[in-house]
Amino acid sequence: MLPSPRIRSPKGSTSPRAHLSNTDLLCAGFLRNFKLILLVTVCIALARLVVLPTAGPIIQEYSQYTQYSSPSSLSSSSASEDAPTIRLPSGSGRVETKPTKKETDRSQKEPSVVDTPKSKSPDDTHPKDSSKSSSDSNNDDNHPKDPSPTDPKSSDLINDDDNHSEDSSPKTDKSPTEKSSNSNNGEYHPKDPSPKTNASSSSSSISNRTDSKQHKLTKEGLLSYYNASLSPVIPGGVRKMVQVHLIVDITSESGIVEPSSKFLLSAIERSKYLKAVGVTFVRQLPPLFTQEMHPRNPASPLLFLVDWGSLNRDCHRLQLVLEKIREEYSLETNDNNNKSNSTNKSPTSSVSSQLQEAYTLLVDFTGSTRQTKCEYLFQDSYIQDKSRVRLAKRSIVQGRYYNYDTNEMYLGQIVSPLEWHPNGEASPILYSPLILRETFVNAILNVTQGIKVENMNRSIDVGAFWTNGDNSHYSSYRRDITKVVKTLHHSKINSQVLMENEVGLAYTDIKGYVLGNIQAKYVEKLLSCKIVVVTQRDEWEDQYRLMESLASGALVMTDDMLAMPDGLIDKVNVIVYDSPTSLKTLIRYYLHPDNEAERKRIALEGYKLVMGRHRCWHRLEELVFGEPLTNAYQPYKPAPIKEQGSTSVYWMDTDSDWYGQFL
Fold first, then answer.
1. What pLDDT, on the 0 to 100 scale, is given for residue 193?
2. How many degrees, rounded to 5, is the angle at CA 475 between CA 470 and CA 478?
């Protein structure tokens, strides 16, 4: 059979491939070799699984340190860059991730620091249902069981000096030293900064080891490390004058000065134990300006106080600022030495010894839990004693979030205070919640005109003041709580009285609010409320309105917090709710005429605490010395007069508008 003739293309025709583009040819080649590519990919994946360990044990180990057993209790943001790595302090002082069995046995035999038990509250006068729901719900439902006999709510930075609130008369004639001698009169008892003073007691430990296979720090243990009374910036009970050099950044995105910078300087000027030697203003480095307040005395301790939040936690900018200040101090000291030599007097100490012995405190009042590590501060050329470099933070809780589906608030967990420096050379981070601003205190005095807050006529039953209708994803829980206050409006307190509630704006002038200005209408509304409801943000704790509401003399109801400001105790000077349902029950109970005396008593105790414990100089003295000193626990005593230097400090924004003297 003859082969079929070969078919030839007509003359002038082209191959079908000539009509295909390069992209089509590339796709065709990929499809032709797809099996080979898939085989290579599978081989690479199998090789990585064999070489690299799986992440299962790491996830299992980290789950031991979370506040809740359910993985859904952690937000996506907290599980990433802000997730804490809890470490235990061993007996040698180093920070280790996994202690050995010998170290574990030895640490269990060592004495431990004891958290002070909670003061008894009038449970017999509290509603049976609401008291349990408001005080025990989070501990029973959301938290793991703690074998410690101490109530978690009573040991979050609560100590013996909380009992001062039982005495309604102001203590204006006793110093903190005299008060320490009265151990049974319910007054203030200062603590020894050294933790060894409580080492003889072992009923509750800072480090709670419930299982040899699961080592972790409990909430109370972490808060104990944050407590400035156990580890102040200047230890050893130093009570002599400390000279402070304040460093603030006036380069703000909104063109205004941070309120924290203002009340830090106010705290220095009003404290009897602190003196401002200078204020350094940073604006778009390298330019900066230092205003001298008082002459430097080399015999007194020197503290560099840094508004770390205003600097945006920028270590490089801080390094440039400190190097410039060291240069200025060096020139000044050389001039003093030359003058001393010319008059045959003994020269002053060198600037290097002064600065190496200086203390450095970075205070961060922002809502971020980030613990920025600055290696420059721990260099031997800058300082020899690494424990003199400290960090204080407002936000120490992460993983807090609100579940929209179940209407439950997950409180999150305490961030470890022991890992600021990677080598464990730094002392623990200190907790520094927001303070009661003096501008608000002055506004209260202007409205009351000498009338005590407990004697004010209060026509509003329940008030809630924040940005109503705020669509921010940080305010979901706040909106649900606001609905409770609105729903109870004009409901029956009893058969003859209807409830009068108000939900309003605390501040309408946003720029004025950030500046620290106080609106008179907001103050008047607070002074007219019998009860003020306060709610934290969905993802962080602490706000100015908590302290402002307490200072108004109203009964304050706040949602639960892991890091409650020192001295606040449920049913003693504040009421804690854990859900919209419990809030509704508590409001009805405390507005009932039969419970009016109890409501007024708790409100007055809250007023005394905030006025005698949480003002700007109290907070700074607590960080530096371990306890408030100036007018401590004297709520009715006027604020100390500011001691100003040779030059008064004014603040202005980028538009050169003067906002008056610093308050």
1. 34
2. 100
Smallest Cα–Cα separation from 546: which of 529, 577, 568, 518? 568
Strand 302-307 with 288-292, pairing: unpaired
Per-residue CA distances from 589 to 127, 129, 456, 485, 585 (Å): 7, 10, 21, 14, 6
Q: Strand 658-661 and strand 650-652: pairing?
A: antiparallel
Q: How confident is the model at residue 17 (pLDDT cuts 50, 70, 90)?
A: low
Cα–Cα distance, 532 to 465 (Å, whole number) = 8
Tokens, residue 456: 């004010």
pLDDT at 657: 32
Pairing of β 389-393 and β 359-364: parallel
As a whole number of angstroms, the distance between CA 548 and CA 527 comes to: 10
Q: Which amino acid is at 193?
A: P
SS3 (DSSP) at 550 = helix
Distances (CA, A) of 579 to 478, 484, 575, 602: 11, 10, 13, 21
Is there a contact between 504 and 468 (Cβ–Cβ < 8 Å)?
Answer: yes
Upstream peptide bond of 286 is cis (omega within 30 degrees of 0): yes
Q: HSE on the CB side for 450, CA within 13 Å?
A: 0
CA–CA separation, 396 vs 562, rounded Å? 9
Give me the residue label for tokens 């992440």: 55
First to last CA, the chain: 113
For 455-493, b/e burial (b = at least 16 CB within 10 A) is ebebebbbbbbbbeeeeeeebbbbbbbbebbeebeeeeb
DSSP string, 265-309: HHHHHH-SSEEEEEEEEE-SSS-EEEEE-S---TTS-EEEEEETT
Q: How many CA atoms lie within 13 A of 248 on its CB side?
A: 21
* Arithmetic mean of pLDDT, 191-214: 34
**Are residues 411 and 612 in contact, defined by beta-carbon separation less than 8 angstroms?**
no
pTM: 0.65
Average pLDDT, the chain: 70
Out of 3.20.20.150, 3.40.50.2000, 3.10.180.10, 3.30.70.330, the CATH code matching 123-211+436-614 is 3.40.50.2000
Cα separation, 398 vs 195, whole angstroms? 27
